[in-house]
# Entry
Amino acid sequence: MKEYAYYPGCSVEKMALSYHMSAMETTRALGIQLKELEDWNCCGTTAYFHVDQILSHALCARNLAIAEREKLDLVAVCAGCYKNLYFANAHLKNDPDLAEHVNVALSEDQLNFAGTIAVRHLIEVFIQDVGLEAIQAKVSHPLTGLHVAPYYGCQILRPRKDHEDVEQPRFFEDLLTAIGATAVEYPDRLRCCGSSLLLTSRPAALGMLRTLLQSAVDSGAAVIATACPLCQVNLECYQNQVNHEFGTDLSIPVLYFTQLVGLALGIPPDKLGIGKELVLPTPVLSSVGR
Amino acid sequence: MAERLSFSDEVSNLLYAAHGNPLTTCIQCGTCSGTCPVVPYMDHTPRRLIGMITAGLKEEVMASNTYWSCASCYHCNVRCPQGIDIAELMYALKRLSIWRAQHKEGLIGPVFSETFVKTIFKSGRSYEPVLATSYLFTFGVQEFLQEAQTATSLMLKGRLPVLPPRIKRLDNFGRMLRRIIPMGDAK
Ligand code: SF4
Ligand code: SF4
# Structure
């Protein structure tokens, strides 16, 4: 059984508990093991970069060093955590002076960064390590007839890491197809949900959410699939406020890809944290006969 | 006597660790502004802001809401034909404005960032309810009520944390951070 160090991130403790639950259930069913990183700390999210770059690298480096001690690749479920950890790892590997500076600080916790592990996002592990065929082979409850809008958002794709296609990615669509669902095409799948602007520039964020939600609904989607807790909360929990602001009538459920995969694998909805939504995922459940 | 740095050089220095090309390579093509989802809410588009930096319009740039409106979505970055790290530029301007306490009045971003940093120093984790204090009280009655309603719904679904989380080796963690930023007695 392939093992990974698992970085839950601050939001899954409560706000996105269903992401955590469904990640645990589906990985087990797919034959991989996520081992929670010992005493992990906040990755710094986006707010930290405003204040100090080296500090934000040190925050990530502590998590990377703990994973190195375990000799396991580090898997994040939050797109923001993934981006921070991934680029801190890359920058520290490429910049020995920076790494030395950070290691002086890490020694206070008896840790050392050496750059020996890789940082992955869980959706990437599903697609590249488990493989679509292996997932498809385990599907017992295909989501036949369910129209899903795959929402990539930003930080899984951007900034660009290598030469990968950041303009026309297909992996999310492919994953949805593998579990029997129909992935709809809509123009805003790569567009930002507003992230923390919801707190700091509310009118901008509500406007961005409206555009995005409307684009998904207009494409005929019955549900939006995400791979990030911040996107999930923004897209789902602020629909009410969007409706209030713009006089719209939006009501589209937003689930994590792990919840959809879990349902297709026949895992009971409550074990996937389904039931904690503000917009009930009724169409999704009825597609698998629950 | 040391020569005075131009504003453009000052910003470039801030970007020394960024991986993009210098701002002077900007050809003002406007791809960034055409891509940016926040442009309708910015007082200057990203393209224009870069032009203003190169022209040395420091006061106008610092007074702009553009960089605090940036959502760090990196969409402009991946499309800029000149390979300029525009999102990092926005971060750099945020840092500069925090250092100089010179941001536009009424912006929530700076307070939010500072509250965030303090929360992490104290616990090693981020915690929604403490962060909320940095923006909730700046909201009007309407927004406040809507935000409270969303929070109540989330709480009823068991999605809001009640107790602040903490990491175990907090002492080591605090010493580690102080090796990088001396924070005085803040604990
Ligand atoms: S896309 Fe790049 S080159 Fe074009 S205006 Fe924006 S920063 Fe300048
Ligand atoms: S990173 Fe900032 S400036 Fe660039 S497109 Fe996104 S929001 Fe606009």
Q: What stands out?
A: The CA atoms of residues 9 and 54 of chain B lie 9 Å apart. The two ends of chain B are 41 Å apart (CA to CA). Chain B touches chain A through 64 residues (CB under 8 Å).
